[in-house]
Specification:
The protein is of the alpha+beta class. 18% of the residues lie in helices and 18% in strands. The protein has helices spanning 17-28, 44-50, 101-105, and strands at 2-6, 32-36, 58-65, 77-82. The protein has a 4-stranded mixed beta sheet with strand order 1-4-3-2.
Length: 137
């Protein structure tokens, strides 16, 4: 399973409180635990501490589900946590068109093969609180 999270909580320091709280609830309820896909033995707390200073727009974690009542353990999943603020130097990046269903359900593009920016060539810094100029608030 893949989970995409776009956290809209007020968290200007990127403390990751909502994700930390969710992980604690999942552990307490014996549902699952989260791990760093790049370094699975690394404590998730260190991963969350590093994220605010990372030059990336998202956090990619593995999810290890616990064994169910039927005695089977589901396969591991993935969580993509999308940060709600721009990374440094990203304000002049052009926006791109809305994602299509095919893009959302397909394999992610390889580095350097992403679709081109939108026709308006709007820069991210010029956007208002809405996420796309066609739907301006």
């Amino acid at each position: 399973s893949q989970i995409i999270v776009s956290d809209a909580a007020e968290d200007p320091e990127l403390s990751m409180r909502c994700l930390r709280d969710a992980a604690a609830i999942c552990r307490r309820e014996h549902l699952c635990s989260f791990y760093d896909l790049r370094e699975p033995h690394r404590d998730i707390e260190f991963v969350l501490r590093d994220f605010p200073d990372a030059n990336t727009g998202f956090l990619h974690l593995g999810i290890r589900y616990e064994t169910g009542r039927d005695g089977t353990r589901p396969p591991d999943g993935q969580l993509y946590y999308i940060r709600m603020r721009l990374v440094p130097g990203d304000t002049l990046t052009p926006t791109r068109a809305l994602l299509t269903e095919t893009e959302l359900l397909g394999a992610p593009p390889r580095p350097g093969q992403a679709p081109p920016a939108g026709p308006e060539e709007t820069r991210r810094v010029d956007l208002s609180g809405c996420w796309w100029p066609a739907f301006e608030c």
